[in-house]
Write a structure and sequence with these properties.
This is GLUG domain protein. The protein has 257 residues and is mainly beta. It has 1 helix and 29 strands.
Length: 257
Amino acid sequence: MRILRFSVALALAASGIAFGFAAGDGSQANPYQVANTNDLQEIATNNPNSGDYFVLTSSITGVDFVIGGSFNGNFDGDGNTIDVSYQGTLTGDDALFEEIGQQGVVKNLNVNLDYDLSAYSGNWGFVAGIAGFNNGGTIENCSAAGSIDAQDKGLAVGGIVASNAGTLQNCQSEVSIATDYGCNAGGIAGQSTGSIDECSFMGSMDVADSGFESIDDTANPTIAGGIVGYAWDTLMTVQNIPTLQQMQKSSLMQAVW
């Protein structure tokens, strides 16, 4: 069972919630305007209705919480950047959005990451820039930069998404990723059963080379790749992908470059 960060339990029902944004009504023509950390907290603590629209009107710094639950709205970053910093103990849901649901869209968003995490007590945990789990949603025209240092076994770690079962379109990652053995790590996605189209990675990876680790009494290898670490049933279009700058100490198994 994954551990939720402090603002993401989302116990309130989605229906009928009145958001506290300064402008917007959540429609496509007049989206809720997200201008600061407090506005992001509104999304994190009040699960939005499916189909609600949000637009980021300025870059935001100092985000150290997760937008939890399954996000099924439409979040347009409008080319702005969110600085995300997670320090200390791994929760297993270490990403800006815990989950993007089937109706969810996140687009035109840049994230700058500063993650220094360790001591995960669960089984499989998710660590990424945009979303921990893309559960049938769409992430498009997004980018991630900065660093992810997640030192423990049993993690899916990705620059954009940890585990992808949806669509990733035209995303770029320049994240420096460091992780431990027994993990699935990728510059774009740690693991994927979904679609990855025209994405590129120009960061670096430093992953442990100790081979297999027993997780849930199952032997799990260290699997890493420039685009995705572990991929199955994945439709991928790769065009004009730049050269990966650095790859260290990896046991490359089932990796997609």
